[in-house]
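Task: sequence design from structure.
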């Protein structure tokens, strides 16, 4: 099982706690984890990535094992610690403004 930590705004929308557990299909990539997240919590579709293009929303970032994965290709395999469930994939809502 993959552990995914989601921001509080999305926790409220999905009515879940700070972390959810998912079982993605096939190879564990950012895309497969997001597919599993949107399948299990359909109310999150379009909040993390665009419906059509599947591109990450501008103020959303992905981190795993202390590394920013936000600009990695969606089919890049996630780190072994995330795949094994020892570390979560973090979905972070960036803060903008001045």
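Answer:
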């Amino acid at each position: 099982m993959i552990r995914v930590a989601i921001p509080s705004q999305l926790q409220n929308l999905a009515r879940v706690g700070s972390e959810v557990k998912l079982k993605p299909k096939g190879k564990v990539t950012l895309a497969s984890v997001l597919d599993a997240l949107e399948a299990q919590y359909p109310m999150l579709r379009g909040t993390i990535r665009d419906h059509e293009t599947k591109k990450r929303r501008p103020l959303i970032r992905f981190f795993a094992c202390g590394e920013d994965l936000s600009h990695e290709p969606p089919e890049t395999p996630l780190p072994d610690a995330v795949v094994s469930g020892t570390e979560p994939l973090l979905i972070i809502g960036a803060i903008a403004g001045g």
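Residues 30-40 form the longest helix (11 residues).
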